[in-house]
Amino acid sequence: MKRRITLVLFAAGIMLVTLSSAVSAQSKPINVALFNPIQVFPESNSIEGLRINFIYGKNVAMTGLDWGLVNHVGTGEFKGIQWGFINICDGNATGWQSGLLNLDNRDVKGFQWGWFNKGNHVNGFQLGLVNMAESMYGLQIGLVNFIKTGGQFPVFPIINWSF
Asked: Which of 63, 64, 92, 140 could share a disulfide with 79, CB 3.0–4.6 Å?
């Protein structure tokens, strides 16, 4: 019991020191959101570290681990790992996205794994039931795969690629 209380107090102290030292900076080390705008830091801040979104969280940019039900990165860049049911990125994304829906409105570098994966220019690997890319340098594996320009096939089942 004492060990558990000590651990909780230690973690709370670390969070307070980290948050208080980062309050003046534009980029924050951690964010927790119930749903936007009910989150620790507003969506105008970038997060570099950890973001936990219980229902829906949005920030202008994100670097690190983004975990939650709906993870939304604004027009800034996403770099890291996104794990959620729905992952949305309005800017460029670099890293790994894993969710039912991975929706990227700009360029993707890395790995998308989900039921539906979408990116503008994808440089990497998409694994899902439906994969979509405007253009691609990489591989798609899924039930239906779309590469609008430059792919081996514009639409093809099971596997599609562009190298």
From this structure: 63
Token pair recorded at residue 79: 């770099």
Round to whole Å and give the CA distance between 71 and 161.
Answer: 28
On whether residue 68 sits in a domain, the answer given is: yes
pLDDT tens track for 112-125:
999 999 999 999 99
Residues 54 and 84 in one domain: yes
Do 46 and 86 sit in the same domain of this protein? yes
Tokens 């360029």 belong to 107
Residue 10, beta-bridge partner list: none
Task: For residue range 6-56, list pLDDT tens digits in order.
Answer: 444 444 444 544 444 444 458 999 999 999 999 999 999 999 999 999 999
pTM (two decimals): 0.82
Q: What range does the domain containing 75 cover?
A: 28-106
- What is d(CA 76, CA 89) in angstroms, rounded to the nearest whole number? 9
Give a yes or no: residue 10 inside a domain.
Answer: no
